[in-house]
Task: inverse folding
């Protein structure tokens, strides 16, 4: 992306795939990295009993509903303390992921909805895949760009 002219990057967001994180660290040294909250929540809920999943998810979401960095960090500490009593594995996961999950707090609140999940990008990729699967074979690169690139 950088070789194609991408610049001005301040924050890169992705899931916590090891290879992806390594590539981001190499290509965007010195930039922030935000872990996708949706993917993190899936990882957390995988270790929580079904009957407690809704409660645990609700408690964790309170972290991200805070108005500023100070309140976010305070709520994070309260949530990890609370979950440490009932779900110590979840509390440990939160503590391990703290810098990755809270990177968004250093950005203006108005950007919050755009930087908390990779789901919009995944939807775009799914639509491109659907369009290209329908056609199958493209006569040239321009034809592919016309189909996959139009909105």
Result:
């Amino acid at each position: 992306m950088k070789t194609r002219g991408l610049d001005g990057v301040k924050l890169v967001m992705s899931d916590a795939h090891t290879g992806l994180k390594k590539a981001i660290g190499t290509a965007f040294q010195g930039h922030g990295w935000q872990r996708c909250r949706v993917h993190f929540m899936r990882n957390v809920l995988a270790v929580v009993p079904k009957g407690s999943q809704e409660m645990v998810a609700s408690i964790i979401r309170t972290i991200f509903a805070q108005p500023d960095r100070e309140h976010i960090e305070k709520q994070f500490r309260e949530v990890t303390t609370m979950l440490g009593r009932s779900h110590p594995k979840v509390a440990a996961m939160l503590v391990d992921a703290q810098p990755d999950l809270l990177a968004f707090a250093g950005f203006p609140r108005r950007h919050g909805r755009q930087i908390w999940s990779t789901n919009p990008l995944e939807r775009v990729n799914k639509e491109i895949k659907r369009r290209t699967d329908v056609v199958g074979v493209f006569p040239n690169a321009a034809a592919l760009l016309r189909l996959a690139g139009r909105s």
About this structure: Residues 2-117 form one domain. The longest helix spans residues 69-86. The first strand starts at residue 11 and ends at 14. The helical segments are 18-27, 37-45, 50-64, 69-86, 88-101, 119-135, 141-149.
